[in-house]
Give the backbone structure.
Amino acid sequence: MQNRFQYVDQLKQMGAKIESIDAPVQDPERFYNFNTTDAKLTDVHAIKIFGPTKFVGQEMKVHDLRAGATLILAALSAKGETILHNVSQIDRGYEKLAEKLVSMGARIKRVE
């Protein structure tokens, strides 16, 4: 899965300090939970995250389920407003996530 960190650029826009690293792995086939036979030299399999981060709200598109959950968590801690498009990606994997977060104090408004 070569795009597993495609959301990192979005987190960087929000203020995250993240860098791609080439972490040496003894046995990639066993270590990673994906097919590495089609891997390219430019693929990123590890990142280093520096924190804490003061996120700033942004407007962005959710590309997949896990990235969506990550962006929601960043948005909840961000200063200002965050607008997420394509939230159906999140809905398909997390049942009533917005409602659950609102019940814990999050301010989320769904616009259809």
Remarks:
- The mean pLDDT is 88.
- Helices lie at 8-13, 28-31, 65-77, 88-91, 97-103.
- The two ends are 31 Å apart (CA to CA).
- The CA atoms of residues 45 and 59 lie 26 Å apart.
